[in-house]
Amino acid sequence: MDIEVRPCASLEELRDALNAIGHSFGFENEFEDAERFARWIEMERMHAAFQDGRVVGGAGAFSFQMSVPGGASVPAAGVTVVGVLPTHRRRGALRASTREQLADARARGDVAAYLWASEGTIYGRYGYGVASRMGSISLPHERSAFAAPFEPRGTVRIVDLEEAARTFPPLYERVRAQRPGMFERSKDWWETRRLFDDPRRRQGGPKHRALLELDGEPAGYAIYSVKQDWRGGSSTGAVNLVEVITPTPEAARELWRWLLDFDWTSELNANVLPLDHELFQLLAEPRRMKFTVHDGVWVRMIDVGSALSARTFNDGEIVLEVEDAFLRENAGRWRVTPAGAERTDEAADLRLDVAGIGSVYLGGFTFRELVWGSRAEELADDAAARADAVFGTDVEPWCAEIF
Ligand SMILES: CC(C)(COP(=O)(O)OP(=O)(O)OC[C@H]1O[C@@H](n2cnc3c(N)ncnc32)[C@H](O)[C@@H]1OP(=O)(O)O)[C@@H](O)C(=O)NCCC(=O)NCCS
Fold first, then answer.
1. 130-164 burial, b for 16+ CB within 10 Å, e for fewer?
2. pLDDT above 80 (res 251)
3. Domains of the chain
């Protein structure tokens, strides 16, 4: 019997759809997990794949506002919890779910979709392009000296969930305005997800919330846990960071110094850091943090014209010939100038698949990289250099949270 894809109609179906990916990740969701998840996602945006009336797969999309170069935000589908039971894989459930999900996102007015890919092989076929890079670090405590002398003047307080829910969001919003790729968080998202400490998901001790204050005002925050361990009577424990948000250079050096000076631990671990992280300049020995680069978020244009027109461009113009086998509405020639993107009949400078537009959209990759990676073809002299001059940004995209 064929696979049918439709939105979940009940919390029981939502729980079963979550358990499709849960099966691969090694956890099982209870009814109350589905109730909590339903606070973050509209039920109509949680698609499930059914066979013989049973849920065999799921694919969800959060209604996000994603920041783009220039500081604006666009409606974007935050694709999440994609999974198919191992008993039903490779029968088209993902393909059918993705088709429904993208059609639904377009009908709702989302101009882009983005996600964190468990494997790079899955989403390219649906027009997603790798759009940012991120880093993970593991820094030995004794190698964390700053390059320049530094006298802290701020104070750091451990705050409870209620105070964090009041003071952290405005700081996050300040950073979001500076960084393409971040999404707006609802009150529920903060309280029941980012700040919430779920004992079943702990990998070490409880989640702590630390607030940095400068002149008595909130200036930055860190969310972290401590995983303690000993060898030969000495600590081999670690501070594991969940998120560090510092809207100013001063807040960055204050809070990182505080985090790096943690007594009775031997290392600090962090994932999901932006590629242009300030620790490269702050630390005397940046190599010691073992900054390891991974692909970050993957972006898919849902409405190329509206998505491009929402971000800023530098002076110049470039004509792109876009191919899109999965969402044909995007295909064709687009002229991009500081005024935005519009359809054109002019000769194209570059030809590329829509995944390539996803890669350059937030500023995480260049046309030059696309050409050298055989993802774009130059049709005119210096086309990639000219396109990069128009699309160029001065800040790496960053999404602070894996969703
Ligand atoms: C990834 C997953 C959702 C794929 O679901 P599926 O129903 O088996 O996929 P489909 O049958 O619709 O396959 C669609 C296409 O993707 C390919 N594909 C699917 N999973 C793939 C993978 N992991 N690696 C490479 N190709 C893959 C299929 O071969 C097929 O290719 P084709 O269209 O050229 O024939 C499923 O294997 C799964 O649940 N994996 C574990 C959880 C996971 O990784 N989820 C993603 C979280 S970001």
1. bbbbbbebbbebeebeeeeeeeeebebeebeeeeb
2. yes
3. 4-110 (3.40.630.30), 134-293 (3.40.630.30), 303-352+368-391 (3.30.1050.10)
